[in-house]
Give the backbone structure.
Amino acid sequence: MTLRAVKPPHETRTRILDAAEELFMQHGFEGTSMRLLTAKAGVNLAAVNYHFGSKDALVEALFRRRLDPMNAARTAELDKLEASERSPSPEAIIRAFINPGLRLLEDSRGGGRNFVRLLGRTYSEPNKEVRQLIGQMYAPAMQRYKTALERALPHMPREELIWRMHFMFGTLAYTLAATDTVQLIAGCKPEDRYDARLLEERLTAFLTAGLDAPLKNVIRKAA
């Protein structure tokens, strides 16, 4: 056996994750068999079991590989912002939140673009366990941003802020995962859908306006 034939463990693990990311994006979690996965990754079932133990553990590792660094980056961006500004504006907070996600959209060679499309599929497919897992991963960063926005928008009722953050997060997720739909709008340049700088400006303007929109038209529960 030559030295070139010996694959480092981390290389094999990465190949499995890369293959799973692409196949789950194309076929969904239930539609991707282990046989399809091993063929795509060029490994046997024993290698998958050695590195992950189960399909569920593989799914968790796949999401942690991308979401843990992204959420850490979001927290770091907010830490940096709060250290440099005494009272960060809602616009600055939104920029800090959306920027790490947009960096994934730019990453076509490293698989980041596949991953955000997989996220979009995850939100629309009825896989309760995976959605709960993603929610747990997002929770610490989301709590930090909720606290920051409460300080930046002291006039906003807490329940209303929670709803607006829900809309903010959903808008970002849809923008990242469903970029192909922008072609349905006449006059939009298709190449702009992957331009993170332009998306940052457009998203920031839209989300800032929505987050702090007047309350007078908000429908309240009847007393």
Summary: Residues 77 and 96 are 5 Å apart (CA to CA). The chain has nine helices and no strands. Residues 1-7 have pLDDT under 50 and may be disordered. The two ends are 78 Å apart (CA to CA).
